[in-house]
Amino acid sequence: MTAPASGAAPLDPAVPDVFAGTLAELTWYEVERAARDGAVLLWAFGVIEQHGPHLPTGTDVYLPSARLRDVRGLLADRGVPALIVPAYYWGVNVVSGSFPASWGVRPELMEQVMADLLTGMAKDGFRHVFCFSGHGDALHNRTVHAGVRAGRARSEADVSFVLEPELVERLGLDPDDPALTVHASAAAPSPPGEVDVHAGRWETSMMMHSHAGLVREDVRPGLVPTGHGPEQLAVWRRGYDDARATTPLGYFGDPAAASRAEGERHHRTTAELAADAIVARLAARG
Ligand SMILES: [Zn+2]
Predict the structure, then answer these.
(1) Which of 155, 173, 163 lies closest to 132, judged by CA?
(2) Which coenzymes or cofactors are required (predicted)?
């Protein structure tokens, strides 16, 4: 260990290390034994992306990582051992593509990286890999689906993409696709007509619950709700300059209305729904 360079911020003990709870903390002996004992793998796919003036660019990596730590605990309570794969964070950015700090890779590259790594996990004896997304971009999620399918085609492992019915519908996927594990809906309640999709009320609430130290509380309460509806959402989803023109500050929704309690509720619900769906799939497929 060397001392941090002069001027470096001290590590915040309230913010988990990026590898916290993942198999990167284990030795290969421990990983091998877990595979032999029938552990399933949980893997999050996020991206580095702008999240307004109040949330960090790693939001879509922090949130699914926190969720998977809880999913793993819920599975353990039901006798299902699980390991968490370190989060994948070089995803696809269309919507935020014109903002700084929102880098993406070509979908075909991400798909191939996924297929290679999934093949390696299967070779080690892991029979079930559950992939999650932390990022709403449609092309990113189509790419996770494509990578899962490529992993299934190249290995014996039962790889699947765990997602909510709203995303299945938005992507135009078949809910009976064996590459999907569809859990029950956990749609965050928002007032009718108010669209809250990016760094707004629900996502900010989640960060206030799991990573409060990274939320810029000097800025958040003063942010004005975008007040956009479905029409602006359609323009925003075209991405790049259209998205930046629709939401110049980078958020779409109402971050000032966020609360830690709402984040905690939503976090718990989504972890439970995912654990339920995983247990059901394992029961059905063995
Ligand atoms: Zn996000």
Answers:
(1) 163
(2) Zn(2+)
Domain ranges of the chain: 23-187+264-285
Cα-to-centroid distance, 186 and ligand 1 (Å): 16
For 266, phi and psi rounded to 5 degrees?
-65, -40
CB 255 within 8 A of CB 223: yes
5 pLDDT more than 80 = no
Backbone angles phi, psi at 113, to 5 degrees: -60, -45
Tens digit of each residue's pLDDT (9 = 90 or more) over 41-63: 999 999 999 999 999 999 999 99
Total count of residues recorded for the chain: 286
- Tell me, rounded to whole angstroms, the distance of Cα 94 from its chain centroid: 16
Specify the higher pLDDT residue, 189 or 173: 173
CA neighbours closer than 13 Å in the CB half-sphere of residue 233: 15
Q: Is the CB of residue 157 less than 8 Å from the CB of residue 85?
A: no
For residues 84 and 68, the answer to whether their CB atoms sit within 8 Å is: yes
> So what CATH class is 23-187+264-285?
alpha beta
Helix axes 59-77, 201-210, angle to 10 degrees: 60
Here the tokens at position 259 are 């609360």
Three-class SS state of 130 = strand
Hey, how many other C-beta atoms are within 10 angstroms of the C-beta on 235?
Answer: 14
Q: How far apart are the CA of 233 and the centre of ligand 1, in A?
A: 15
> 281: CA distance to ligand 1 center in Å?
27
- The dihedral through the CA atoms of 119, 120, 126, 129 has a sign that is negative
Query: 158: CA distance to ligand 1 center in Å?
Result: 27
Q: How far apart are CA 23 and CA 1, in angstroms?
A: 21
